[in-house]
Amino acid sequence: MELTMAWNEPPGGNNDQDPWGNRNRKNNEGPPDLDDLFKQLNAKLNKWLGGGNNNNRNDSENPKRSGGSGPIVAILLVLGIVFTGYNTLYTVDEAERAVVLRLGKFYRVEGPGLHYKIPYIDKVAAKVNVTRVNETSLRNSMLTADENIVTVAMTVEYRAAAAELYTLNVQDPQATIAHASESALRHVVGSAKLEQILTTGRDQLQALVKERLQEYLDSYNVGISLDQLKITDASPPTAVQEAFDDVIKAREDQQRLINEAQAYANQIVPVAQGQAERQLAEAEAYRQEIIARASGDADRFSSLLAEYQKAPEITRQRLYLSTIEEIYSNSAKVLLDVESGNNMMYLPLDQLRRNTATAADSSASFSSSLNINSLTQSEISELYDLIVNEQSRRRNN
User: Where is this region: Disordered (predicted)?
Assistant: First the structure.
């Protein structure tokens, strides 16, 4: 209240004072002395905190003292309590792991949540994000196994798998992963040929580099795990770039022709297989037909043999007649037996067919349907007359 009333008093007169109880300096003699201000502030604080009269009396008896030390100790004590609480409790996010040291030695790894530590004994060395994927890239020119130079660009994605190892065993993880990646890439590229790196062997190259890099990191014991490794580019030197482009184009043409040939083969082979299957089926059918026919002939012969054994002469005559009928049914010549004599007359039906078209057509139709056993006596007589007339005509000519 004294401080407030000092501000509220009107200026001028005998009560013209500053907030610290000092009379205003006349004629603007300058700012007050800092030591005096500090002494007055200390006195006011002592009064508010309950040390007023004794401290004032001591101050009046010993003006060199700056006031009691009680309030300062109290303030320092409060600040110490706040600072201790601040250093005792700490929080860890969901994606983080806290590495705690006790007396400078690794103690434990804390998970997400609110945790406490002993002040001045325990220390949180680092909070490591174990879910964030970090990335590093490199691009360098390297020597291949066939003594060619190739420029390779690679991207490595990794994360901290073990927080204590990641914090305590490596000082600069980014530099460590970059150096290890370059070393693994140079080793694998130096064992491969240029053509393999530029064309079909890139996937295999990536797998080998990733495997070797993870082995390096495990041997370093740095707690880093690889997520993905990609070789983004691999190109030959600029001086031979055009030649390599021609090689790649030729290889693409080769692959295109192979694909076309494969497509043609896929189209032709089923047709050929179908034809082969059909021929096999026809051959099998023919085999079955021949076997069946042979079996039938054998059965027929067995039947004829049985009949022959019963009546040999009759069976022999029947076989002879049927054989002669079968032979002459396929012949273009006709033989007629004349009843009045022993002469066998020959009928050249093929020549008669050439003489007259009409007679030829009739003879052809007649000869095609001619059957000796089916001719009647009148038909044989008409045929005989036709033959005699034809012979007379030729004799006269």
Answer: 1-35, 48-67
